[in-house]
TrEMBL record:
Name of this protein: Phage integrase family protein
Biological processes, Gene Ontology terms: DNA integration; DNA recombination
Stored InterPro entries: DNA_brk_join_enz, Integrase-like_cat_sf, Integrase_catalytic
Native species: Salinispora arenicola
Keywords: DNA recombination
Amino acid sequence: MNCVYQVIARRGERLGIKLHPHMFRHTFAHRWLDAGGAEGDLMELTGWDSPQMLRHYGASARAARARRAYDRVDVMGGT
């Protein structure tokens, strides 16, 4: 284990939660996409060369984003 992982994991233990560095990447990706950020920009910001990384990190909250998008999009013509 590297030092960053250990520091974050120990801090999580003290808080009584399971915490690891990749949770921050998942959260960042989710919030970026949920706010309407472009996938290509997210890939650039995170240094991902492969769309597979985008799918991996974006998948953790894909269903929640889809539900919010459904609520925002007026598919029935104004109710």
